[in-house]
Amino acid sequence: MANKIFLIIGREYFTRVKKKSFLLTTILIPIVIMAFYIGIIAIAVSDSGSKNINGLDQIAIIDKAGLFNGKVDSTSKKVRFTIISNESEQDLLKTYQKRGYDAFLFLPPFQLDSPSNIVLHSSGLLGHSTHSEIEDLVNNSIVAKRLEAQGITPEKYKSIASDVTIKNQLDTKEGSKSNIPEVGYFISMACGILIYMMMLIYGTQVMRGVMEEKMSRIAEVMVSSVKPFQLMMGKIVGIGAVGLTQFAIWIIIAFLLQSAVPLILPDVLEQAKHAGQSANLAVMNEVLGSVASLPILKIIGCFIFYFLGGYLTYAAMFAAIGSVVSDDQQDTQQLVFPVMMPIILGFMIMIKAADNPYSNLVIFGSYFPLTSPIVMMGRITFDIPGWELLVSMLLLAGCFVFITWIASRIYKTGILMYGKKLGWKELIKWGFRR
Amino acid sequence: MNILEVQNLKKYFATQKAVDGISLNIEQGSIFGLLGPNGAGKTTLIRMITGIFYPDSGHIQFNGKKFDPQLDPMRIGYMPEERGLYKKMKIGEQALYLARLKGLSKSEAMKAVKEWFIKFEMESWWNKKVEDLSKGMSQKLQFVTTVLHQPKLIILDEPFSGLDPVNANMIKEEIIELARLGSTIIFSTHRMEQVEEICNHIVLINKGIKVLDGNVTKIKQDFKENLFAVDTESNQMPEASHLYTIVNAQPGHYKLRLEEGVTTNSVLSHLLANNITILKFNEVLPSLDEIFIRLVESSGATRKFQNIKG
């Protein structure tokens, strides 16, 4: 009996690992995650859509307040300011667009201690960053003027102003370690996103596999040799093993790359050391130190647990859905949607978790078994009490047993049923009847 | 000896009494016909025999012992009506996989698959994928995968649907051969003419209930209507209401129904006395088709949906 389920697992595993698409996803997923991050960073950094050819917003300034003394000190890469003298607000209002300005800033005469009625004219909405850059420019100029009025020179101000970075010292049992919060945040998010993607990708693969068995009408042939439960679990475990193989490949590749870079490109590191990039190197060291300060083993252990727990739970649901749909695409969509919902919800809560890992919503999300794999991984680098982790894991394990039990009952009936449209109501009835 | 004994088997679904108290015995080595119109409960009955469904009540004895849904399916080969194969899998691999799921070891499976592939001239297919096969070819493959593990009981649900006469005949001969070698074959169909040729024993079920059970020849005898076909040289047939009525008359060909108690000899002497030259005189037995239709119609042809509590 037992070796039959291994036969099934073997078939599911090897047919997938041998496929070209396996190689493709193994390469693509890390790229997608990287691209996701680069995308987020790029969006955060980049200017929001300037329309001039050289990428600059052209801003004209009428300075009746005398704030700039005829010349603008701006290092901005996004905005170019031009002072226009001898023209009134009304005149420029009519012509500024024709003259190639995206907007013009009008500074009426005002007292330094009560600046008011400053207006920015533009034909359309300016980008948020452009707007704040203009505000910064005006504010800085006003501050400079006020300092001057108080008799403080720019040099003196520099010696007064403060810009410190605060290191986060983690006091763990193994002693204190310094840490950059961003590193922990990055690793948490990466784990959460990875689990999210793996659950979706492999969950839907299970569903497609079950559908294939049903559509190609092999299901009944199979269940005359093996129990439906064996068939379902064999598929789920086999595909899960494909996922774990993929992780293993990534870890090995990452390890190899790390040790291979100095071998292949020994000059690069040497050059970096000597070419006055010691500042960058220091940052690098700090990042590596932060990574090392995290409980790596705990993270990997939790990752594997939550991946397996989450994957097995969702895969069972996807298998049940696959067993009841017929080839109607719309039908599938309607049934898949409620299963996707908690995954997406989990993803959204996880993004919140990075901001505030101890809010009520996040704590709920890391207990609730349908979202906990994603949310808990999203806050794994924060200091989570052991009992909290334990409760969350127990809930997930219990949920897995329960969902699999129901799903296998739906699956058993569904896989032999043809040409019938089904709703959630019937499925739940199947799940619970004798 | 009976390979399979089924007693009072019942399986109710939410809206159907799919199988409602069926009993039957199947003798070892026989070719058994399980007949019935669509929706009669054939597939549900078979699914219980193959261990796919648990019966609500009733007993199944397989090979003299209580049916064990864990082990006994290994000695059954079942080709369902809704059948198929993994489309993307190579044919050789697929046959091996299905054989091993039936409990064969790797080497046993390899040996069996090779034997059958040679027998059916399928060796060149080994590395092809199922999706490359024509329908007839994949039917053949399906049949092979059903019988690979030398099952004691082979259940074939509509085995000839979609097969051309050449392939159908090939499989038919193989079925007869398997029965000769000691396998028992259950043959489920609603196409009677196929059954008539190869089955020794049939059971007819309708609406979940057994309506007929017996040897094919005996059933025909039971349902005969004293009909005789007579071919004559002349184009006439004398009336003789005390002996027979003419049911059907075409020049030279007549069908007579003999009255109760009348012997064939008295009919023949009557015809000879009337100076009629007889070319042929034989009894007409009803075909299974006719019996089937008669029985099914008298019990109401199709199922209605009914509500079953519990």
What does this structure look like?
The complex is a heterodimer of chains A (434) and B (310). With 434 residues, chain A is an alpha/beta fold. Chain A has 16 helices and six strands. Chain A has a four-stranded mixed β-sheet, sandwiched between helices. Chain A has a two-stranded antiparallel ribbon with strand order 5-6. The radius of gyration of chain A is 30 Å and the shape is elongated. The radius of gyration of chain B is 24 Å and the shape is elongated. In chain B, α2 (91-101) crosses α3 (106-119) and α2 packs parallel to α4. Chain B has helices spanning 42-49, 91-101, 106-119, 135-147, 165-180, 192-198, 216-222, 264-273, 288-298; strands spanning 2-12, 17-27, 31-35, 57-62, 65-66, 76-79, 153-157, 184-189, 201-206, 209-215, 227-232, 244-250, 253-258, 278-284. Chain B has nine helices and 14 strands. In chain B, a hairpin with a 2-residue loop joins β12 and β13. The A-B interface holds A 1, 4, 7-8, 11, 15, 212-213, 216-226, 416, 418 and B 47, 50-52, 70, 73-74, 76, 78-80, 82-89, 97-98, 100-102, 142, 145.
Sheet bearing the most strands of chain A, described? 4 strands, mixed
Describe the global form of chain A. elongated
Q: What structural class should be given to the helix and strand makeup of chain B? A: alpha/beta
Low-confidence stretches of chain A: 47-54
* Uncertain spans of chain B: none
What is the terminal-to-terminal distance of chain A? 24 Å
Mean pLDDT of chain A, rounded to whole units? 80
Instruction: Bin the strand percentage of chain A.
Output: 5-15%
Distance between the termini of chain B: 37 Å
- Tally of DSSP β-strands of chain A: 6
Instruction: Give helix % range of chain B.
Output: 25-40%
Q: What value does the Rg of chain A take, in angstroms?
A: 30 Å
Question: Looking across the biggest beta sheet of chain A, what order are the strands in?
Answer: 2-1-3-4
- Order of SSEs of chain B: EEEHEEEHHHEHEHEEHEEEHEH
Number of helices of chain B: 9
- Biggest beta sheet summary of chain B: 6 strands, mixed
The overall pLDDT of chain B, averaged over residues, is 86
Oligomer: heterodimer
Q: From N to C, what is the helix and strand string of chain A? A: HHEEHEEHHEEHHHHHHHHHHH
Beta-strand portion of chain B reads 25-35%
Helix content of chain A: 55-70%
